Amino acid sequence: MMEDLQPGQKLARGVARYLRSLGYAPLEEFVPVRGLRVDVMALGPKGELWVIECKSSRADFQSDSKWEGYLDWCDRFFWAVDLAFPTELLPEGSGLIIADPYYAEIIRMAPEDRLPPARRKKLIQKFAMDSARRLQALRDPRLGCDGLLLGGAAGDTPEE
Predict the structure, then answer these.
(1) Which of 51, 58, 76, 83 is 20 to 30 A from 45 via CA?
(2) ∠ CA 28-34-36 to the nearest 5 degrees?
(3) Given this model, what pLDDT does residue 150 score?
(4) Alpha carbon 148 to chain centroid distance?
(5) What is the average pLDDT across 140-160?
């Protein structure tokens, strides 16, 4: 399994394992709003929402032009990198996590900028729906008979 993961996904795995140990519920590749996909969104025990962007190299970081858009969708924003990453490239005022595929550790806590209540509610609901759908898809990857509840063509009624 590990050999199938890209370098950034390996970092996300270590970050997710670490966040679970802190009592957070991490969700990888979460889309808070159309056009943005964060590497890890974590829901905390008090309803806090953290975004963690995993960068596996200098080129990966320098090619990312969307990260500032993530700031409006979390209470705290972190970068997750490995030990070899040149951390001086990372912007001040953001959190820093050092990670590998198995573990991670917060090196610098991100400043808190609390989300507005309405946005928090919407995000937590989307987080819950996405999580539940992913879990159900693992158990039963097929929606049913071609996506229909009772089978047959759309509009057909079951025979009695």
Answers:
(1) 83
(2) 50
(3) 57
(4) 30
(5) 58
Backbone angles phi, psi at 142, to 5 degrees: -110, 135
Q: Which amino acid makes up residue 34?
A: R
The answer to whether 24 and 44 are in contact (CB under 8 A) is: yes
In this model, does residue 125 exceed pLDDT 50? yes
Which residues lie closer than 8 Å to 129 by C-beta, 6 or more apart? none
Give Cβ neighbours of residue 38 (< 8 Å, ≥ 6 apart).
Answer: 29, 30, 31, 32, 51, 52, 53, 70, 73, 74
Amino acid making up residue 98: I
- Torsion region of 82: left, alpha or beta (phi above 0 gives left; psi -120 to 50 gives alpha): beta
DSSP label at 146?
T
pLDDT tens figures, 36-73: 999 999 999 999 999 999 999 999 999 888 899 999 99
- Cα gap 158→51, rounded to integer Å: 46
Residue pair 12/100 in contact (Cβ under 8 Å)? The answer is no
Has residue 145 got a pLDDT over 60? Answer: no
pLDDT for 160: 44
The count of other CB atoms within 10 Å of the CB of residue 141 is 7
